[in-house]
Structure formats: structure tokens, C-alpha cells
Amino acid sequence: MLEAINLTKRFHQGDIDVTAVERFSHRFKAGITAIVGPSGSGKTTLLNLLAGFDTPTEGEVRVQDGGKEVVLSRLDEGSRAGLRLRLMGFVFQQWNLIPTLTALENVAFPMLLAGHKRKERQERAAFLLAQVGLEKRLKHLPHRLSGGEQQRVAIARALALDPPILFADEPTGNLDSASGERVMELIYSQARKGRTIIVVTHNLELARQADRILRVRDGRLLEEVVQ
Ligand SMILES: Nc1ncnc2c1ncn2[C@@H]1O[C@H](COP(=O)(O)OP(=O)(O)OP(=O)(O)O)[C@@H](O)[C@H]1O
Ligand SMILES: [Mg+2]
Fold first, then answer.
1. Where are the domains of the chain?
2. Of 9, 81, 96, 122, which sits 20 to 30 A from 60 (CA to CA)?
3. Ligand 1: residues whose CB is within 6 Å?
4. How far apart are CA 100 and CA 159, in angstroms?
5. Ion ligand 2 nearby residues (CB, 5 A)
6. Distance from the CA of 57 to the center of ligand 1, in angstroms?
7. How far is the CA of 18 from the centre of ligand 1 (A)?
8. Residue 13 C-alpha to ligand 1 middle, in angstroms?
9. In Å, what is the CA distance from 171 to each residue of 13, 112, 188?
10. What pLDDT tens digit does each residue of the chain (227 aa) get?
11. Angle at 175 between CA 172 and CA 181, to 5 degrees
């Protein structure tokens, strides 16, 4: 479904070379995979490569698209964006909602990009917002919502097109523990639908609830713990 093969990413910053991800290989399975590691160990860089926001210096990302296996990292940016829209949802640490759109419009946005009809967009967006407990916040702009509420809108948006793969990069990093737990429950509950969930978290309690934990350090995969 989703596989990293010898994935390497080097950044050149002036005359300094940083290897953020180094020969990372892993075949991601359905269910929840937590990625843990110290700050600067390359977790965000890795997610960006897996989701095709960025391209590797070496190695490749392969993904199953319909019946065929595609080398995501060899596609151009437009094709990667198209594939991401069909196959992937992404929840960022800083929720990244569009500030001028209401909660409903933010959730409907990926469906707009995918060419869905207005009525269908609005119905599904309202349904998803109700699922994350925000049925009374449809018309709110992001700045009128609490951090936990904004993150729940971001989760609803990530699920808008029913993606088989869901990424979350420290989705609870900016939340208090109660809203963090609620957000994580929502993300984890998606695994029951057969999705592949890949979540970066500093919270070891949350990592323990995953099906497997990948420990990374200095861009390398140290070990996989199956729970
Ligand atoms: N665009 C960039 N240009 C140069 N160096 C970068 C860039 N992005 C990341 N790096 C470097 O790559 C390394 C890995 O960064 P990354 O953001 O992936 O770490 P992380 O594990 O997500 O850290 P954190 O837990 O703090 O979010 C860091 O040393 C960082 O400085
Ligand atoms: Mg990070």
C-alpha cells in the first residue's frame, strides 16, 4: 500500500549538509503506526516525503493507486498533488485551516478541489463535522474556535475524501491533554475502517495505543516495536 525504500533526504544550508532522513525503509501496514523520536530526528521530513509534499534525495516512495503501484517520488508536483487528494489525508501540528473559510467550507474544500457538487460537499462536510462533535460550529471561522476544535475541523477535512491513508504530524502538540486525547481518539478510530494511519507523536501514552511503533533517530529507523 505505502512503502519507503532506502529513503534519504539531505538539505543543504549554506555550506552545511543535513541528512534529515537516511536510508529509511519500511512497508506501512493498515492500522496505526506511531513514529517517535527526538526533536530534529527527521519525523516531519519523513512524513513530507511519504505524502509527496517533498521529494527524496535518494530512494523512493511507492504507493498503491487503484490497481497499480506508483513511484510517488518520481511523479511531478501536480501528479503528486492529484494522487494525494485521492489517497491521503494530512493533519498538521498547527491545524492549517484556511482563516477566511468557515469550518464547513474548510472541510468541504478538498471536495471542491476534487470537483464534487455543492450539495454533496455541504452534506458530507456537515456530516463529518457532526462526527467530530462540531455540529454547532459549522459557520464559525477558525479564529472563533478553540485549538482542540480547530484540530477536529482539520481531522474532518483530512477525512473529506475518505482517504485510505491518513497522516498526522504531532496532532496533539498544541492541545491540552483532554482535547489532545479526544483528537487522538478520533484519529485512532479511523483505523477501524481499514485505513493506514501514520502518526508522529511525542506522547508515549498515545504511541502505546498504536499497533506498532517506529523509533527513529538521526533520520534512521532504529527499531520497529509491534504491540
Ligand atoms: N527545509 C529544510 N532546510 C534545511 N534543513 C532542514 C529543513 N527541514 C528540516 N531540516 C533539518 O532536518 C532535520 C530534521 O528535521 P525535522 O523537522 O524532520 O525533525 P522532526 O523530527 O520533525 O523534529 P520535531 O520533533 O522537533 O518536529 C533537522 O535537523 C532540521 O534542521
Ligand atoms: Mg516535526
1. 2-226
2. 96
3. 11, 13, 18, 20, 37, 39-45
4. 20
5. 44
6. 15
7. 9
8. 12
9. 28, 24, 12
10. 899 999 999 999 888 999 999 999 999 999 999 999 999 999 999 999 999 999 999 999 999 998 899 999 899 999 999 999 999 999 988 878 999 999 999 999 999 999 999 999 999 999 999 989 999 999 999 999 999 999 999 999 999 999 999 999 998 888 888 888 888 888 898 888 889 999 999 888 889 999 999 999 999 999 999 98
11. 60
According to the 3-state scheme, what is the secondary structure of 18-52? Answer: EEEEEEEEEEECCEEEEEECCCCCCHHHHHHHHCC
The owner of cell 527524496 is 56
Residue 31 grid cell = 492500522
Question: Could you say which ligand is closest to the alpha carbon of residue 16?
Answer: 1
CATH superfamily to which 2-226 belongs: P-loop containing nucleotide triphosphate hydrolases (3.40.50.300)
Question: Of the residues 18, 50, 215, which should be mutated to test ligand 1's pocket, given the most ligand atoms within 8 Å of the CB?
Answer: 18
